[in-house]
Design a protein that fits this description.
Keywords: Amino-acid biosynthesis, Aromatic amino acid biosynthesis, Isomerase, Tryptophan biosynthesis. Its EC number is 5.3.1.24. It comes from Gottfriedia solisilvae. It is an enzyme of class 5 (isomerase). By secondary structure, this protein is α/β, with parallel strands linked by helices. The protein has one domain (2-199): TIM Barrel (Alpha-Beta Barrel), CATH 3.20.20.70. It is built from seven helices and ten strands. It has helices spanning 11-20, 38-45, 63-73, 86-91, 109-113, 161-168, 187-199, and strands spanning 2-5, 24-28, 53-58, 77-80, 96-101, 118-122, 150-152, 172-175, 180-181, 184-185. Strands 1-2-3-4-5-6-7-8 form an eight-stranded parallel beta barrel. Strands 9-10 form a two-stranded antiparallel ribbon. Helix 1 (11-20) runs parallel beside helix 7 (187-199). It is globular and about 40 Å long. The chain binds the ligand O=C(O)c1ccccc1N[C@@H]1O[C@H](COP(=O)(O)O)[C@@H](O)[C@H]1O. The ligand O=C(O)c1ccccc1N[C@@H]1O[C@H](COP(=O)(O)O)[C@@H](O)[C@H]1O binds at residues 6-7, 26, 28, 30, 32, 34, 57, 59, 81, 120, 122, 128-133, 153-156, 174-178.
């Protein structure tokens, strides 16, 4: 299973995560305590190997801005956490990851509506559109035969990621808050998270 470390804001942490085995690095362009500038994200991405996914996180951004930031920075995917409609996603010229907040069974119906490369399932809880460090009821997605590539996010930590993945069966897990200490990325937690996912232990 692949691992995405999200909310990276400096080269050193990005390099550390990749050496520890991360497959994808996320950059938050939306309003957030983890927000990064276009120029900083570009600087970091220029140091990353080609095979690593470089994912930009946005909330209700315009098509024009999404596409120009994608090109300018060198992203591989646009991760959308706002109220972007299926038809809006379809107009975008680049690979899309649509985040869907899973609160009830009804939310699962939305997955089929989005013609995206990946669907990211996230928690509905918390004040922001993502990055809240809160989980959701993973059992809502158990045995649903969802024929889409799922990315599991929302409050993942070394203590819950294996159980959550066993239930949801994602192709990738995505973590931000769970690898931070006092609001900053923590290398020990990043390493432990990746080791837990890839090797089943710290
Ligand atoms: O990280 C943020 O601040 C953020 C802001 C706005 C939208 C999405 C954001 N992050 C994404 O949220 C999920 C869950 O993160 P967490 O592990 O619960 O902190 C993840 O996909 C982040 O990429």
């Amino acid at each position: 299973m692949n691992v995405k470390i999200c909310g990276i804001t400096d080269c050193k942490t990005a390099q550390f995560a990749i050496e520890a085995g991360a497959d994808a690095i996320g950059f938050v362009f939306a309003e957030s305590k983890r927000q990064i500038s276009v120029s900083k994200a570009k600087e970091i991405i220029q140091t990353l190997p080609k095979h690593i996914l470089k994912i930009g996180v946005f909330v209700n951004e315009t098509k024009e801005n999404l596409e120009s930031i994608f090109e300018e920075v060198g992203l591989t995917h646009l991760q959308l956490h706002g109220d972007e409609s299926p038809s809006f996603c379809q107009t975008l010229r680049y690979p899309v990851i649509k985040a869907i907040r899973i609160e009830t069974e009804l939310d699962i119906n939305q997955i089929a509506e989005y013609p995206c490369d990946y669907i990211l399932v996230d928690s509905p809880l918390g004040p922001y559109r993502g990055g809240n460090g809160t989980t959701f009821d993973w059992n809502l997605l158990n045995n649903k035969n969802i024929e889409r590539k799922l990315i599991l996010a929302g409050g993942l930590t070394i203590d819950n990621v294996l159980l959550a993945s066993e239930i949801v069966k994602p192709v990738m897990v995505d973590v931000s808050s769970g690898v931070e200490t006092d609001g900053k990325k923590d290398e020990k937690k990043i390493e432990a998270f990746i080791n837990t996912v890839k090797r089943g232990g710290i």
